[in-house]
Amino acid sequence: MHAVSPVESSPVETPAGAPVRDLRRVHIHPDNWYPLAWSHEVKRGKAHGVRFAGEPIVLVRTESGNVFALEDRCAHRQVPLHGGVVDGEAIRCCYHGWTYDCSGRCIDVPYLGRERLPNGVRAYPCREVEGLIFVFPGKRELAESTPLPPLGSVANRAYKTRRFGREVACHYSFMHENLMDMNHQFLHRRQMGQMRARSLSRRRGDDWVEVDYTFSREAGQQPIGEALVFGQSRQGQKKHKDVMTIRTQYPYQTLQIRTSEGTLVMDLWIVYVPLDAEQRTNRTFGLLSVKRPKLGFLLDAAWPLLIWFTERIFKEDRWIVEREQEAHDAQGADWNHEVFPVINELRDLLRNCGAPPARRVVPIEPEPAAQSCVS
Amino acid sequence: MHAVSPVESSPVETPAGAPVRDLRRVHIHPDNWYPLAWSHEVKRGKAHGVRFAGEPIVLVRTESGNVFALEDRCAHRQVPLHGGVVDGEAIRCCYHGWTYDCSGRCIDVPYLGRERLPNGVRAYPCREVEGLIFVFPGKRELAESTPLPPLGSVANRAYKTRRFGREVACHYSFMHENLMDMNHQFLHRRQMGQMRARSLSRRRGDDWVEVDYTFSREAGQQPIGEALVFGQSRQGQKKHKDVMTIRTQYPYQTLQIRTSEGTLVMDLWIVYVPLDAEQRTNRTFGLLSVKRPKLGFLLDAAWPLLIWFTERIFKEDRWIVEREQEAHDAQGADWNHEVFPVINELRDLLRNCGAPPARRVVPIEPEPAAQSCVS
Amino acid sequence: MHAVSPVESSPVETPAGAPVRDLRRVHIHPDNWYPLAWSHEVKRGKAHGVRFAGEPIVLVRTESGNVFALEDRCAHRQVPLHGGVVDGEAIRCCYHGWTYDCSGRCIDVPYLGRERLPNGVRAYPCREVEGLIFVFPGKRELAESTPLPPLGSVANRAYKTRRFGREVACHYSFMHENLMDMNHQFLHRRQMGQMRARSLSRRRGDDWVEVDYTFSREAGQQPIGEALVFGQSRQGQKKHKDVMTIRTQYPYQTLQIRTSEGTLVMDLWIVYVPLDAEQRTNRTFGLLSVKRPKLGFLLDAAWPLLIWFTERIFKEDRWIVEREQEAHDAQGADWNHEVFPVINELRDLLRNCGAPPARRVVPIEPEPAAQSCVS
Ligand code: FES
Ligand code: FES
Ligand code: FES
């Protein structure tokens, strides 16, 4: 890790001679834990179909309440298993009734003897934490040694957390850049008034980059929603002393606001999960934690306003990143001309940490051996 | 023809070394008669546009009531002739009025002299039988010697026949496999209760394969719709003695139910006509004939129920085969892993009887000589 | 220029040995002035996004009322500038606020010093005439020496002009052929009764072709709308003495009707501007001028009827040319079999005057030098 000046003289990102991969075609690295659904979306005794980068995955909550994840394609004729029926701790395909346990093994074909059972389907390591169902879509043998990410302040009772997210029709890299470049306050001029961000310092490591900002108001009044997000409103003050730190810790992103006394007043954890094989769409899962003030009920009263405020901003961000993806599609290449050094560092990071672009859907491989079903 | 045991030890379908054509890319063989519309869809003095495997075809019913079939593309500027005007026994293109007779010959261009008439369009052999309009899309010289298929019991007054059909977004082969594999009763568990099919024997020839089933009820009551379809309900009996025979006689399919005394109580004739050039959609034409009981009016009274029952089942089948096509599209290949021998035989049959995949739309060829218009 | 007989013996259009470009893939030549919007669509202080052959272009009307045209892609991250904010005589991108003047130069990046401003975006020569905003999408250095086209009788107070147009999903060449081939009256049989066109003579030059027609009524009464369009109705007369001249003066088209005394009673100017990169859609801009009769108010009274009449005809034409494009798409080639000599000449003209097909969207090139913003 090393600190660098927030302004560099040469924002060049293409070293002479070396061809640079088009960032918008870099696939996200599968050897990480990704949330694929909120817990409440997978009801007891039901199956729920999701996707990771074009791979269909079925999340099954058994009658005992456990969740497991399988390839969402019957080994027989590849119809989605999420149309099937949960039977105890297994899932039965809706077409001819082939049945799979949590390890993907085929344990029953109603019209065949037990001795002739065919191979099953791929199982994915799966964990349920804080209302999110995480799946490890990469190399199975790495799942155990790869920790789940820390989820901000969601588990801390001193904070109130909002869960949010939506499908966004763009490559995940646009999302990271959008959040990290606070010079885009102009986009939110109706919500944020005329705020100006100032980057203080940035730091980076092998798989992360972060930047600090302070904000000052150029003109106009502080909207009430902004006051809520940025902690206590301090009337009459032109310059916020709060520091906002935005960090991409591959593949996740966080945004934290601390007061000058060091109190963490806002803590956002967010991740952008590619849906299609081309990775031109993503589903966003966000946990926005706000520190409860001394009088906790004030926050509860203001909560609907905070939701409205963040929804509006999220909607504007979604609109603009989808326009960026459209431009990339029309041009067939990334023409971005970046002048802000931290964004160039972020772009390098996302390129270096991503998967090679050759990754595509592959035929069903039988699992080498049954695994235990305790998740 | 030879009978084989319903259960074989090795369901292998890929002989070592020989690459197998992807069944879902095998085009249907055009040298057969295919129904392209119901008679009532082609009104007197009107033209009706249909498609066979991407080829646009116009069906014209003249003022005298005859039906003929032409390429649905004006020789002049290729606009669809079905937008035109029937003029006596001919069709006039809606754009500049070029006029074609039943043989496809251009017999008038309003602004040219008769001596300068251009070539016409392709005509297709066309026959109207039992409310269906059949066209022979293949080599014209084979039409005469190729018989129309027998249409089940539709012409027999002892049976009442329901005509049905719908567009289904899948390759025709999924339809054949769906109907022939009666192990998919699980799909219809809401309609059929818990029926279990048992295959008795199968037989095959060069261009056909057939299989016999009996059924037994695993649990629950016999739904009333099922009783109607499977002939007289025999209360209290757990095991049906009726035998169901399903046969693909390329390119058609039949399903017949006979009682133990040999009475044919249900007789279904069905065909799946590809619509698009890729043959990923089909239009189904079905004739479902049910033997009238001694008291014929009982069947009439139960008819709406029978319609509802078959609609529901057809809807479930359509849903699942469209999921199969989607899976094939996503994978780009057929990953089916079949364990039921008769389906593997059916798949071989459909591959062997199909057309080579090179077949595509070709430029208009003028007809070598005018044919007679009596259809 | 030379006059030729309206009927030739050989309508061959493919000289032996020479491969002919598919006319429907010939791109329109960009070195001309094209209207991209009506003036009223670009409000004061607003930006409006349009397209020319796949190139996104933003039309900006500044606070002083001037209009300028830029590439509709921010130099920073390529989002459309038409989502931005007009600021005096400049446009500010909605995302990070980069600001461009009428020459495309970037004149402000809110978070960078003036000495570090990046390159800007492409500017297009732009002129506003008679309610149309014209842009020159080709080589900038040719704009000055290329005149705007004469716009029929729109500026003449003796005529009343209707402005009309719509998007049409076809290549512009189908539009030219549709208007020039008056043998397509059969398409408008409901509106025009049974009119028969007769071509008198045709003439051509390097970049134009024109043809004269007279009309006679075959049967039925003259519809009142037709009477309006074709000038004064002359009851009882079977044969119109009026002469219609249709001319393609690349890339524009005109249609004029003159009485036998030489009075110009109708004057249409029209152009078809490709929208997408494949040029399979166009936006039509038309100016239809009708000579005011002695009692001018008669025309005003009949005006709604004239609008209805022309709308209906335009709708039928749009329907048929879209069917032509569909046929071309399905066939993958132009199978037209033309027998009318003037249309073959028109086809040659459109091929010869068109751009080479290699033209596609290209990366942003910075403007060599700032230009003056007086349009
Ligand atoms: S497709 Fe799943 S059991 Fe047959
Ligand atoms: S397109 Fe059919 S007559 Fe011209
Ligand atoms: S994308 Fe236009 S200012 Fe950043």
Major sheet of chain A:
9 strands, antiparallel
Gyration radius of chain A, rounded:
23 Å
**Could you tell me which ligands this complex binds, including any ions or cofactors?**
FE2/S2 (inorganic) cluster
Distance between the termini of chain A: 35 Å
GO molecular function, one term (chains A, B, C): metal ion binding
Pfam families (chains A, B, C): Rieske, VanA_C
Keywords (chains A, B, C): 2Fe-2S, Dioxygenase, Iron, Iron-sulfur, Metal-binding, Oxidoreductase
Protein name (chains A, B, C): Phenylpropionate dioxygenase-like ring-hydroxylating dioxygenase large terminal subunit
Q: Any overview of this molecule?
A:
3 copies of one chain form a homotrimer. The N terminus of chain A is likely disordered. With 375 residues, chain A is an alpha+beta fold. The first copy, chain A, is 18% helix and 30% strand. In chain A, the strands form 4 sheets. In chain A, strands 1, 13, 14, 15, 16, 17, 18, 19 and 20 form a 9-stranded antiparallel beta sheet that branches. A 4-stranded antiparallel beta sheet of chain A has the order 3-4-5-10, with no helix packed on it. Chain A has 2 domains: 109 residues, Rieske Iron-sulfur Protein; 195 residues, Naphthalene 1,2-dioxygenase Alpha Subunit, Chain A, domain 1 (Alpha-Beta Complex). In chain A, β11 and β12 form a beta hairpin. In chain A, α1 packs antiparallel against α5. Chain A contains 5 helices and 20 strands. Chains A and B meet through loops of A and α4 of B. The complex binds FE2/S2 (inorganic) cluster (3 copies). The site of one FE2/S2 (inorganic) cluster has 9 residues of chain A, from loops.
